[in-house]
From TrEMBL:
This is peptide-methionine (R)-S-oxide reductase. The lineage of its organism: Bacteria, Pseudomonadati, Planctomycetota, Planctomycetia, Pirellulales. Its EC number is 1.8.4.12. GO terms for molecular function: peptide-methionine (R)-S-oxide reductase activity. Keywords: Membrane, Oxidoreductase, Transmembrane, Transmembrane helix. PANTHER family: METHIONINE SULFOXIDE REDUCTASE, METHIONINE-R-SULFOXIDE REDUCTASE B1. InterPro entries: Met_Sox_Rdtase_MsrB, Met_Sox_Rdtase_MsrB_dom, Mss4-like_sf. The chain crosses the membrane at residues 12-32. It holds the Pfam family SelR. It is an enzyme of class 1 (oxidoreductase). It catalyses: L-methionyl-[protein] + [thioredoxin]-disulfide + H2O = L-methionyl-(R)-S-oxide-[protein] + [thioredoxin]-dithiol. Residues 66-188 form the MsrB domain.
């Protein structure tokens, strides 16, 4: 092949490889997107079913106003629960909390997680393999990162809690990666003693 043709051919090869890589990347993102959407949808269906079975007591909840929330919550609690911020890893209250008890919503006190479903994830955030009840939390697909994630919020007051991933331990395989700032820990028996 003459030199000029060889060069053109090489350019074409580079071009073709680039296009292929872009297409593969795009398809992967599309697949992840639909997987994440399906995941949020399925989890929400389970939560709705559980709510229907539990009755309509939840409907009486009156959400607090922004002013009330500003008074009740500190800055990080407000940013995480109301604006879906993420607290720093390891510099939060419960990532390494090994005490027995329940984690409740910081805004509305709804029980969300139990200490016996908490596991050491190494992420620096409190991690659980399942919520206390299926209707404790709701889900949404979140596009804040370049790949879609499944956002988790309190089903009663809609406070943002964190995200759920599919790399958790048995029996569920789920990793609920939560913000300590969204929750308050109620140590076992501590409410009875008071
Ligand atoms: Zn709540």
């Amino acid at each position: 092949m003459p030199f000029k043709q060889q060069k053109t051919f090489r350019h074409f090869q580079v071009f073709a490889i680039t296009i292929t890589l872009f297409a593969a990347g795009g398809l992967t993102l599309l697949a992840m997107d639909s997987e994440s959407k399906t995941s949020a949808k399925l989890l929400n269906e389970e939560a709705t079913q559980a709510t229907d079975e539990a009755g309509s007591a939840e409907e009486e909840f009156v959400p607090p106003t922004k002013a009330e929330l500003r008074r009740k919550l500190n800055r990080i609690q407000y940013d995480v629960t109301q604006n879906a911020a993420t607290e720093p890893a390891f510099r939060n209250a419960y990532w390494n909390n090994k005490k027995k008890g329940e984690y409740h919503c910081i805004v509305c006190d709804k029980p969300l997680f139990k200490s016996d479903t908490k596991f050491k994830s190494g992420t620096g955030w409190p991690s659980f393999f399942e919520p206390i009840e299926k209707d404790a939390v709701g889900y949404e697909t979140d596009y804040k990162m370049f790949f879609p994630r499944t956002e988790v919020h309190c089903l009663r007051c809609k406070a943002h809690l964190g995200h759920v991933f599919d790399d958790g331990p048995a029996p569920t395989g789920k990793r609920y990666c939560m913000n300590s700032a969204s929750m308050k820990f109620i140590e076992a028996n501590s409410r009875k003693e008071k």
